[in-house]
Amino acid sequence: MLKDEVWWSNMYKDVKYVIKRCEKCQKTKQSSMFNPTLHAIIPSKKNELLALDLFGPLPRSRGGVTFICVIRDCFTKWVSFYPLKRATTRSILHRLTNDLFPRMGIPESILNDHGTQFTAKRWKETLNSMGVKVIFSSIRRPQSNPSERVMKEIGRLCRTYCNEQHTRWAYELNNFSKFLNSLVHESTGFSPRELQIDASRVSLLPTALQVPHVTEDLEKKLILAKETLHSRAARRALRKSARPYPKLEPGDLVLLRSNPISSVLKQETKKFLLLFEGPYRIKKAISFDTYILVDVKSNKERGSFHVCHLKKYFNPL
Questions:
Q1: For 122-179, what is each residue's pLDDT tens digit?
Q2: Which residues form the Integrase catalytic domain (predicted)?
Q3: How many CB atoms lie within 10 A of CB 141?
Q4: Tens digit of pLDDT for each residue in 278-315?
Q5: What's the pLDDT score for residue 213?
Q6: How many CB atoms lie within 10 A of CB 150?
Q7: What is the distance of C-alpha 222 from the center of its chain?
Q8: What is the CB neighbour count within 10 angstroms for residue 146?
Q9: What would the 3-class secondary structure string for the chain be?
Q10: Predicted structure pTM score
Q11: d(CA 115, CA 136)
């Protein structure tokens, strides 16, 4: 429309430059976000890294439980499920220190999200005192926690076996873990039960029809699993080519995709709320695609966010 009225040299470039720096435009316009290839966490031994998350709240089941504490060994793929009445720091630590650790050993590190149970001072202090390093996944990036895949499987199994009686999930939980720990994983070539507890592979055939096979010792299984895990990860990385994205550096200004919620009391609909908040300054990078943000004015830390939730901010003229 403007070019119908006026014209000057480099007009398109100048107009684009001005609009690009409009504060309101930057926060309301949909834009292509940075979306680098997701780099999987590849541990080299069991108990090197456990991924932990909470599934729920669910319909109250046997014993008054409403949550499932989901734990996965990122190397062996072994899963452990603990039904909880309340998803508190105390109840989760009780399960870890009184059952999981005595049975499976103390891990080197635990990966969890930013839930209040895991940001509590007691969580980190207790685990650190046992030599366990606490690692946080990116905010609003469930894919960065390997336990997310297990959560989807729990949902699928619950829909299959509990669709007629939703409160039955706690009765089936032990069967779910047995099933998942018996499946052979393509990424390792073994089932979790073979690598974690040195148990034999489960066969679906009757005993009379089973074909005898040579069973490797546990140490050899772990070596083969490690080689398979790393080689398959390398092949996946070659197949996946993400769209190039600008690198962000400490000190850069960015906008953060907001998480709007409609409110009847405030007479607000999320359809009309701003898509982005900020600006924030990048404090530091904690990985190639995750950054810690701080408020520009107060310098207060906002949290760690994956690059897919960020876009560069341009100061208004």
A1: 999 999 999 999 998 876 665 667 788 898 889 888 888 888 889 999 999 999 999 9
A2: 39-200
A3: 19
A4: 899 999 998 778 899 999 999 999 988 888 888 889 88
A5: 57
A6: 24
A7: 25
A8: 21
A9: CHHHCCCCCCHHHHHHHHHHCCHHHHHHCCCCCCCCCCCCCCCCCCCCCEEEEEECCCCCCHHHCCEEEEEEECCCCCEEEEEECCCCHHHHHHHHHHHHHHHHCCCCEEEECCCHHHHCHHHHHHHHHCCCEEEECCECCHHHCCHHHHHHHHHHHHHHHCCCCHHHHHHHHHHHHHHHCCCCCCCCCCCHHHHHCCCCCCCCCCHHHCCCCCCCCHHHHHHHHHHHHHHHHHHHHHHCCCCCCCCCCCCCEEEEECCCCCECCCCECHHHCCCEEEEEEEEEECCCCEEEEEECCCCCEEEEEEHHHEEECCCCC
A10: 0.70
A11: 10
* Mean predicted confidence (pLDDT) in 245-267: 82
Quickly tell me which residue has 């047995």 as its tokens: 178
Task: Tell the burial category of 97 from Cβ atoms under 10 Å away from its Cβ (0-12, 13-18, 19+).
Answer: middle
Tokens of 183: 């499946």
Distance (Å) of CA 119 to CA 33, 35, 202: 28, 27, 39
Q: Give the C-alpha separation, 101 to 110, whole Å.
A: 12
With contact defined as beta carbons under 8 Å apart, do 49 and 111 qualify?
A: yes
Residue 131 CB neighbour total at 10 angstroms:
10
pLDDT of residue 66: 94
Q: Tell me: cis bond preceding 279? Omega within 30 of 0 counts.
A: yes
Omega cis (within 30) before 57: yes
CA distance 24 to 18: 12
Measured CA distances, 219 to 48, 109, 198, 231 (Å) = 16, 22, 9, 19
